[in-house]
Amino acid sequence: MEKDEIRKILGDKDNKILRLEKELERMKKSLRNENYGLAWIDVPEAFEDDVENKLPIITAVPTCDIKNDDNKATHLLIEGENYHALTCLNYTHKGKIDVIYIDPPYNTGSDGFRYKDKRILDKYPDGTEVPTDHPLRHSYWLSFMRKRLELAKDLLSEKGVIFISIDDNEFAQLKMLCDQIFDERNFVTSFIWNQKLTGGHDSKNVNTVHEYVFCYAKDKTKEGAFNKIISDNEYPEFDEARQLSFKWDSLWTVSHGYTKNCDYPIVAPDGTEVYPWMCHKDGKKVKGVARWFWSKETYNKDKDLLLVRKDKKGNWKVYKKVYGGTPIPYKSIFDRDVVGGTSTGKKTLENIFGSIKVFDNPKSVELIKHILAIAGSKNSFVLDFFAGSGTTGQAVLEMNEADQGTRQFILCTNDQELDGNGEKVKHKICSDVCHPRLSKVIGGYKNSKKEKVQGLGGSLKYYRVGFVGEHSILNTNDKDKLALAHNACELLAIAENTLDGVTKNSHFEIFENKDRHTAIYFKESFDKFDDFTKKVLSLKKPTTVYIFSWENDPFVDEFEDNPSITVKTIPEPILEIYRRIHNL
Q1: Which of 225, 86, 74 is nearest to 160 (CA)?
Q2: Which of 437, 429, 433, 438 is nearest to 458 (CA)?
Q3: Nearest-5° angle of CA 378, CA 382, CA 72?
Q4: Cα 30 to Cα 19, 36, 581, distances in angstroms
Q5: Higher model confidence: residue 184 or residue 14?
Q6: Which terminus of the chain has a smaller tally of CB atoms within 10 A, N or C?
Q7: Contacts of 128 by beta carbon, 8 Å cutoff, 6+ apart
């Protein structure tokens, strides 16, 4: 029996097993929904035809790259359907993303949400906006979100956090959906964003001026997922073994009347008796307007948690110890005075693009910066797969500039043509709005007042989602595997974060960053392998080598004795990730 025939028989057997596993998983989910949770009609999406017939890849668009030799981070912009982009990212960035922020369609009936129903419908044709009276309005939205959030969950790092903007239309549904996907035990909070001063023209009964930002952790029990927002910088910090900090005025509160056992003196080191009203910032000492939170009995029991210290003006104040370096955020409201509102986002775009309207309802840059201050670190991977006009990208660039961080953003958005917002010229989201905005913020521009705005630096790689092969992941043949291997170089370079091309020919390709190389031999024939080996051995930095293999074994020993070289195979590991996703 020929090798190809054996492989085909084994492949058919594997495909049948995968189909059975997929059906079993669907039955399990159905049973879970019978118990408690969110149930809806799961409507297939038309784009699923793509992955039923081909394999997704990411291809470079070098003419849209932005290159600066400033040693700052290189960011990624991916044009295409975000489900396919997330599929590819599950190979390149699984478990690597620290912060995800998304602003999905709110399903208001007028926000542009379109669901391409795989079935043939007469009344609600594919590609039209989903109206509020559509019988499957919520089912469409939930089906749309579930697939993407499931893929997003696997991208989160161990300490990763996801933030999702939403309004009242799908608030309840999103909460239950996220409880199912991320586990309700990992729900952190729903922040309230006061994003405008007055309600919209459609406000009838209640003037709604806020939206929400859901926050879920990959694992809420992991320490280090959240930074702590300092709301009062008046307290000092001490260099102690446990890195304690002390927040003043946390022990007293204003009271409308005298409270027994909460109006007593705390003795300072020099013998001064400190009363709660002495802690007022205006210096007033009127008895009866303030009291300690703690009774005298509680103070005597836990006085080691306090510190009595003079402030800069020489006044004695009582400080309460806060563990973990800084106090946790004391409020769950994003005030528009702090993070801006809808109008702030519009003004930012007007400063960049002038008076022409290019995008409806962009988020405030300050809102995303506030989120990045809450979660992640200076070197986080930040993902937004509903990138829209690119607000998240600008926020990351501004944060890096402010604290000399090396955060790296990955933005995914389609290139859907917008309705023009009343203008004669229509705009495509990615190529006409998001990419030009990032280009201006990186390189500098003149604002609406013709003033020069300094560029923030950094570099950008532009990619586009594509497809190869002729069969789905469950039916791949040798021809499909070859097509994937021949077109996987950019995918592998992204996975290794070596984004700059060095060498490219018909058999192999080499990429680099400042620390390492990635070398890929993607041909099934090894007639150029000696040239490849010599090139790899001449590289001065640590190198990850990818070699084509029909199985999952490179079958080479040329690099075995070189500790700076790591050998991996293609395309089987990529296919394994795709199979797992398809089986969901």
Answers
A1: 225
A2: 438
A3: 55
A4: 17, 11, 18
A5: 184
A6: N
A7: 114
Phi, psi of 83 (to 5 degrees): -65, -45
Residue in the block written with tokens 């948690």:
305
Q: In sequence order, what are the residues at sequence separation of 6 or more whose Cβ sits closer than 8 angstroms to the Cβ of residue 476?
A: 11, 55, 469, 484, 575
Is the pLDDT at 146 greater than 80, yes or no?
Answer: yes
- Taking the C-alpha atoms of residue 214 and residue 191, their distance in angstroms, rounded to an integer, is 6
Distance CA 85, CA 56 (A): 8
Is the pTM above the cut of 0.70?
Answer: yes
8 A C-beta contact, residue 126 and residue 136: no
Peptide bond into 104 cis (omega under 30): no
pLDDT at position 201, please?
54
Residue 167 makes CB contacts below 8 A (sequence gap 6+) with: 106, 108, 208, 211, 212
Looking up tokens 């280090």 gives 224
218 or 448, higher pLDDT: 218
- Residue 165 to residue 145: CA distance in whole angstroms: 13
Count Cβ atoms within 10 A of the Cβ of residue 35 and give its class: 0-12 exposed, 13-18 middle, 19 or more buried. Answer: exposed
Please enumerate, as own/partner, the contacts of 194-198 that have beta carbons within 8 Å and a separation of 24 or more.
194/333, 194/334, 194/335, 194/336, 194/341, 195/334, 195/336, 195/340, 195/341, 195/342, 195/364, 195/367, 196/336, 196/341, 196/342, 196/343, 197/336, 197/341
- The angle subtended at Cα 132 by Cα 129 and Cα 135, nearest 5°, is 95
d(CA 467, CA 52): 11
What is the distance of C-alpha 291 from the center of its chain?
44
